[in-house]
Design brief:
The chain has six helices and no strands. Helix 3 packs antiparallel against helix 4.
Length: 170
C-alpha cells in the first residue's frame, strides 16, 4: 500500500476565515498594518468613486430620457389646453359678446400664470436652494473628526525634552 499525503484543497488554502487573516497579520508591524490599511481605504474610496460615477452616468441618461418625454408631453398638453381655452371663449359667446368672452378667459389664464410664476420665483430663491441637511451633516462629521483627533492627541504620550525633562511631570 502506498502512503499519500493529503494536499490542501483550494477552499482551505485561501480561507477567508478571520483566524487565518489574524494569523497572517500577527507577524507584521503596526506601521506595516497602518500602511496596508491606508492603501486599502484608498482603493475602497477609488472603487466607490468609480461606482458612484457609473451610477450617476446611468441616472443622467435616465433623466435625459425622462426630460425629453416630459417635453413632448408638455407640448401635447399645451396644445390641448389652447383648444380648451378656445372652447371656453366660444362657449361664453352665448352669455356675452365674443370679444368679452375672450377677454375674460385670457385675463383669467393670465392671472393664474402670474400666480404660478410668483410662486416658482419664491421657490427658486437662494435660501430655499441651500442643502441645509447636507451642510448640517457635514458640519457634524467635521466636529466628530475634530473630537476624535483631540482624543488621539490627548491619549498620545509625549516625551519631555529640554531643561525641564529631568524634573519629571509629576
Amino acid at each position: 500500500m502506498q502512503h499519500v499525503t493529503p494536499q490542501p484543497s483550494p477552499e482551505t488554502s485561501h480561507s477567508p476565515h478571520p483566524a487565518s487573516s489574524h494569523a497572517a497579520t500577527r507577524g507584521r508591524s503596526l506601521g506595516s498594518l497602518l500602511k496596508s490599511l491606508s492603501q486599502e481605504v484608498a482603493t475602497l474610496l477609488s472603487k466607490e468613486s468609480e461606482l458612484a460615477r457609473a451610477e450617476l452616468r446611468d441616472k443622467l441618461d435616465q433623466v435625459g430620457s425622462g426630460a425629453s418625454e416630459l417635453g413632448a408631453g408638455a407640448l401635447v398638453t399645451f396644445a390641448g389646453f389652447l383648444v380648451l381655452l378656445a372652447s371656453a371663449v366660444l362657449g361664453l359667446r352665448f352669455v356675452m359678446p365674443l370679444w368679452l368672452g375672450a377677454l375674460v378667459v385670457g385675463g383669467t389664464v393670465f392671472l393664474i400664470g402670474l400666480l404660478l410664476l410668483a410662486r416658482a420665483r419664491s421657490n427658486l430663491k437662494a435660501e430655499n436652494l441651500t442643502p441645509d441637511r447636507t451642510l448640517h451633516s457635514m458640519q457634524r462629521d467635521v466636529d466628530l473628526a475634530r473630537e476624535a483627533g483631540e482624543k488621539v492627541r490627548s491619549n498620545t504620550p509625549t516625551t519631555a525634552t529640554g531643561p525641564d525633562a529631568s524634573r519629571g511631570s509629576f
